[in-house]
Amino acid sequence: MDREVAAVIQQQMTENFGNASSIHSYGRSAKVVLEESRETIARFIGAETSEIFFTSGGTEADNHALIGTALAKRRSTGKDHILVSSIEHHAVLDCTEYLASLGFHVTHIPVGRNGFILPASVEELITEKTSIISVMHANNETGALQPVREISQITKDRNITFHSDTVQTIGKIPVNVGDIGIDLLAISAHKIYGPKGIGAIYIRKGTDLDPLLHGGSQERKNRPGTENVPLIAGFAKAVEIAGRTMEKTAADAAMFRKELLNLINANCPGIICNSNTEQSIPHILSVSLDPTHYNIESETLLMGMDLRGVAVSSGSACTSGSVQSSHVLMAMGYDKHTAQSTVRFSFGKFTTIQEVVTAGNIFCSIVLAFEK
Ligand SMILES: Cc1ncc(COP(=O)(O)O)c(C=O)c1O
User: Which of 5, 189, 205, 303 could link 235 by a cystine bridge, Cβ 3.0 to 4.6 Å?
Assistant: First the structure.
């Protein structure tokens, strides 16, 4: 977390502890911070203040978008078909699985080998029953930036709600809801040096969706529950800092990615780059090891790198003791072995070029020891 953000949270926790729904002065003081924070976040993405609702993070915002819209539109229009890309985060995919269990029809939009969704594929899959389309702005494993503006155009005049999970892009690259034509989007504070457990959903004025929670009248009944003003203030601070720094952070990340990829390619044969460096967010580099060349799976590589002080992610997840291949890489047509020999590097604003070179050298020394 950015230290400036942590300082704001601490100050709010200790000095501005009122409940924003209370009408006494402590409450009113918290309410001022709540509304100023909402305004900061709204302005940052070109939204109106009344279109931002705080949530517990990206997962909740995605759930609210998908479940809230599916239920409301089935009731009001009888539409029960959901189109979702096959490379979404589980916060979206598992939601649609749940909706399928409630009788909704879910279709997955295919993705090409390069990790991109084609607007034409989306158009082909629309039926007169389609109520919502969900395509993420940038994929969290490969970084691939999806053609969300073109997809949003397709939804216009069809009474289809367009949701985009923008957790990986807001605060990293410019995002404007008007330019893209989004109806619903999800944001998470911890991706931009803010606190964990706080985020927001943008709901375009007039969008038909149910709340997930029922209780008090906070967030104009769209998300009842006492607002976590300290985390919200920290979230707004993180957004404000991102506004000032993201251009430089993105340029640095692009340079780090290029250097790292060059270093790896110069030292290790048989490396497959899964991140398109032209059309992606710059802070992610995903590489796979050709399984005909190396005899090492990403879990072993990850542990080896961790022991040497480098934190990276794999393209797989350990579920109930067995390694599951990444659904993103599998959707892109990778075989199981290649998908399970994948490592994702991410660069942040505190990363230095020396750290990138060190990480690259450690990566190469480990994988070369497992060359066939
Ligand atoms: C693309 C994407 N969507 C949603 C989420 C979930 O956000 P949160 O951790 O705030 O619930 C993440 C987190 O990694 C993500 O990368």
Answer: 189
CATH number for the domain spanning 282: value is 3.90.1150.10
pLDDT of 2-22, one tens digit each?
Answer: 999 999 999 999 999 999 999
User: By residue range, what is the domain housing residue 326?
Assistant: 246-368
For ligand 1, say whether the CB of 194 is within 6 Å of any of its atoms. Answer: no
59 lines ligand 1 (CB under 6 A): yes
Catalytic residue check, 273: no
Helix pair 229-267, 25-44: axis angle to 10 deg: 30
Amino acid at 49: T
Considering 95, 273, 318, 364, which one is annotated as catalytic? Answer: 318
Residue corresponding to tokens 């002065």: 25
For residues 266 and 210, membership in a common domain is answered with no
The model scores a pTM over 0.70: yes
Same domain, yes or no, for 75 and 170? yes
Q: Are 216 and 94 in a shared domain?
A: yes
Q: How far is the CA of 234 from the centre of ligand 1 (A)?
A: 18
Ranges of H-type helices in 222-352:
229-267, 298-307, 327-331, 336-339
Whole-number Å distance, alpha carbon 199 to ligand 1 midpoint, is: 10
Compute the distance from residue 257 Cα to the ligand 1 centre, in Å: 22
pLDDT tens string 240-263? 999 999 999 999 999 999 999 999
Q: What is the domain count for the chain?
A: 2
Phi, psi at residue 53, to the nearest 5°? Answer: -130, 130
